[in-house]
Design a protein that fits this description.
The structure is a single chain. With about 350 residues, this protein is α/β, with parallel strands linked by helices. The protein is built from 16 helices and 13 strands. The radius of gyration is 20 Å and the shape is globular. It starts with a strand and ends with a helix. The relative contact order is 0.13. Bound molecules: uridine-diphosphate-N-acetylglucosamine and uridine-5'-diphosphate. Uridine-diphosphate-N-acetylglucosamine binds near residues 9, 36, 37, 38 and 226.
């Protein structure tokens, strides 16, 4: 038995190709949902659209502080893993669900495979950084989305367990993009997503982001994360956001609709780790609303521009980048994240190492 633990939107998107590849190879699998994300449009929609079977169990551990959530997942997960006794636990990305899975499995001596191992922001105030470091160091096999991630792991002495497979999100992106009819030529848009703790934790920070949005030119479509919606309301900024005429705030969308939006975008304004990378799949430049180390190859290519919404000089530069951003045709897009067959490579490596 191979068990996967997932709980967040990007993890469902990463799970789909690996689940299907293992299924095609005939392996018995079980999915545990931590419940970290629980709204229909943050969770169930991805299972339905990406053909992933319903989780065997949902631990309903959403909400609360980091410690409360992580602890709740750990307690629930231990019980489930004792029942499953899997040969392998697969963990995805860098969330509290990932961290809880790593600690519980390590203590039960269940080998861990970590999908999307190795990115480093080199900033431990970034909650995801702590989750990644702990998870990578407790894993038996590490699947890296790019060579920079592999180099990070080598520096930490983890190179022998690490492989560059390419980004599994590219597998998912292609599986959806290939099935979508090219839309009739439509107005190009800016797609915006916004959810990071660093960008929602203070009124000043949120207001400065809205000021940047006000100054951008062209229609902006923003499927808004529920955390951000709640924070805008809490800080009395919801009306200010609603008054920005060229900003269309919508509910979070499923992945098919998200790919449609990305494929219409000339620019993606985001603080999402996943979407910033997907921008290169979809041909839209990326303006990233945090100054931290991430996807450095895209930065070198001047595909991705990072800025600080609270620093005027940095904002001016970001606005210049935004003004110049145009859609980029397939042959000219950066290609740092593999060939869209990451899941098959993962299955192959797991077999070679006798882990499944
Ligand atoms: C989490 C991850 C982050 C990841 C993101 C993906 C951690 C520390 N953070 O951040 O790394 O980038 O998921 O989206 O694990 N909420 C709802 N409905 C939902 C989900 C969340 O209303 O379905 C609201 C709740 O008020 C909740 C808040 O959003 O307390 C934050 O959710 P949480 O899962 O803690 O963090 P994310 O910002 O989603
Ligand atoms: N996404 C989606 N619907 C939305 C917003 C995002 O399907 O309304 C997808 C996005 O394309 C990417 C993933 O969700 O594949 C990123 O998730 P998120 O930004 O929540 O998390 P992060 O990548 O920052 O961990």
């Amino acid at each position: 038995m191979i068990t996967h633990i997932v709980g967040n939107r990007p993890q469902f998107i990463k799970l789909a190709p690996l689940y299907h590849a293992l299924e095609n190879a005939g392996y018995e699998q079980s999915i545990i949902h931590s419940g970290q994300h629980y709204d229909e449009n943050m969770s169930d929609v991805f299972f339905a659209e990406l053909g992933i079977p319903a989780p065997r169990v949902n631990l309903s551990a959403g909400g609360g502080s980091h410690a409360q959530m992580t602890a709740k997942i750990m307690v629930g997960l231990e019980e489930e893993l004792l029942a499953d006794r899997p040969k392998l636990l697969v963990l995805y990305g860098d969330t509290n669900t990932t961290l809880a899975g790593a600690i519980v499995a390590a203590k039960l001596c269940i080998p861990i495979a970590h999908v999307e191992a190795g990115p480093r922001t080199h900033d431990q105030e970034n909650p995801e950084e702590c989750n990644r470091i702990v998870t990578d160091h407790l894993s038996k096999i590490l699947f890296c989305p790019d060579t920079i991630s592999l180099q990070n792991l080598e520096r930490e002495g983890l190179g022998q367990a690490a492989y560059v497979t390419g980004d599994i999100m590219y597998d998912t992106y292609l599986s959806i993009a290939d099935g979508i009819q090219q839309p009739d030529p439509q107005e190009e848009i800016i797609v915006m997503t916004w959810h990071r703790q660093e960008n929602t934790c203070s009124r000043e920070r949120m207001e400065s982001i809205l000021q940047v949005v006000e100054r951008l030119e062209g229609k902006i479509v923003c499927p808004l994360h529920p955390r951000t919606r709640k924070c805008l309301a809490e800080y009395g900024l919801w009306e200010k956001a609603e008054k920005i005429a060229h900003l269309e705030i919508i509910e979070p969308v499923g992945y098919t609709e998200m790919v449609r939006l990305m494929n219409r975008a000339r620019l993606i304004l985001t603080d999402s780790g996943g979407l910033s990378k997907e921008s290169s799949f979809a041909g839209a430049k990326c303006l990233f609303m945090l100054e931290m180390d991430l996807w450095d190859d895209l930065v070198k290519d001047q595909w991705m521009h990072k800025f600080n919404p609270q620093d005027e000089e940095s904002v001016e530069e970001a606005l210049r980048f935004a003004k110049q951003a145009e859609r980029v045709a397939l042959p000219e897009r950066p290609k740092h994240y593999g060939d869209g067959h990451a899941a098959e490579k993962m299955v192959q490596k797991l077999k070679e190492r006798g882990m499944i």
